[in-house]
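Subject: sequence -> structure tokens, single chain

Hey, anyone have a minute? Need the predicted structure for the following. Not urgent.
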Amino acid sequence: MFFLASLLSLLALSSASPIHKRYSSVKIQSNRNGQCLSPQGDALANGVRVGTLPCDQAKTWDIDPGSGSVILSGTNLALDAGTGNDNNEIVKLWTSYPGLYQQTWYLTDDARIAITGGTQCLDQGSDQEGTQTWQCTTGNTNQIWNVLHEGGNTPTPEPEPQPNPAPARGYDGLCVTVSGGTENNGSTVDLSNCFEDSWPFAHLQRWQPLTGKSDVDKLALTAHPHLCLSAGENPSNGGRLHLNACDGVTTGQWERTNGGQYKLFRTNLCIDVKLESQLFPQKPYAIFKELQIWECVEGNTNQVFDTVL
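Reply:
Had a minute. Here:
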């Protein structure tokens, strides 16, 4: 079994720390008022607003340097920014959907917590505004958040268990993913955040050769081996990728080139990242880029994908 990660994301990883780190059960302190991020009231449920409380009364969170979900410790509730696109949106608890745009935050080296791929930051506004999203602005100290251990000290990140290379790419990479959260015949296939094995939609990123007996083969979903990657009946430049029954007449075979491209057998068409495509913040996870079929060009990094075992 393997999954496919775009070279664009892997290049970005080359400058990152080789060991993924995490902060577990920490408090997140606002630079503006010295209080800590916490749900408001006693209820812990979807829709509960998140604001700040004195740190000795605040709940703890699990947060990763870099990109990922911010999870209320001991729960499956994530910090959710509404749409994630607008100023002055409240932040709230919501069931965690890994990769969902409005729940995917980036903890920066300068202590900002920003929507990954967006323009909004976690912001501690006035007493009337409370904790909100606001356009990330250099020098805006309302957007600085300090990560604290229970004792009030800045924690040292602990290494995250690495059962295989997937987690390192699960936050920073983009992987070939069935859109929409279901394995339906005809579902489009695009790029989303790479999911860890434990995430509920990981099975929609795990691919394998159908027979494993040749360098030219159909690519099937490991958990759904009757569904394969397809470029359609008459593939041409700009055509979308989707799932199709592996025994269907329109399901082609793929050949992995020495340069890391996935080429439709007996054509000069390759899987290609559509650069002009925009982020689509759908549920249960966002699509960051569309995939298409395009004429193979040697050295075109939009067409090179890594195989992660």
